[in-house]
């Protein structure tokens, strides 16, 4: 993972150039100031050597526009086995969406 941004009150974790934030079982990837963001929801976990590991993750590419109805904000969605495969698809989807004109 990339280093956190230093010099702010709240250090923000970044991954491949985009912010990565977690709230309970939901991980947001990207910036709300951009046109798109990724939402990953951890659906299932298992314990491996005293560490809880995500085994099933829902990935959604969403528009951030407040004028779009919440139901219509989802552009793409999938489910992946494991957090790393979910992050792989999240990076590709977000970069493609943000670079499209």
Keywords:
alpha+beta, 1 helix, 6 strands, globular
Protein architecture, described:
The protein has one helix at 83-99; strands spanning 14-15, 18-23, 26-29, 36-48, 51-63, 74-80. By secondary structure, the protein is α+β, with helices and mostly antiparallel strands. The chain has one domain. Strands 1-2-3-4-5-6 form a six-stranded antiparallel beta sheet, covered by helices on one side. The longest helix is centred in the last third of the chain and has 17 residues, at 83-99. It starts with 13 loop residues before the first strand and ends with a helix.
Please outline the helices and strands:
Elements: E1 14-15, E2 18-23, E3 26-29, E4 36-48, E5 51-63, E6 74-80, H1 83-99
Antiparallel strand pairs: 1-2, 2-3, 3-4, 4-5, 5-6
By helix and strand content, what is the structural category? alpha+beta
Give the CA-based shape: globular
Tally the structural domains.
1
Listing every helix as H and every strand as E from the N terminus to the C terminus, the arrangement reads: EEEEEEH
How far apart lie the N and C ends? 28 Å
Which spans have pLDDT < 50 for at least 5 consecutive residues? none
Number of strands: 6
What amount of the residues lies in strands? 35-45%
Average pLDDT level: 89
User: Radius of gyration, rounded?
Assistant: 14 Å
**Main sheet: strands, sense, barrel:** 6 strands, antiparallel
Give the neighbour order of strands across the main sheet: 1-2-3-4-5-6
Q: In which range does the helix fraction lie?
A: 10-25%
**How many helices in DSSP terms?**
1
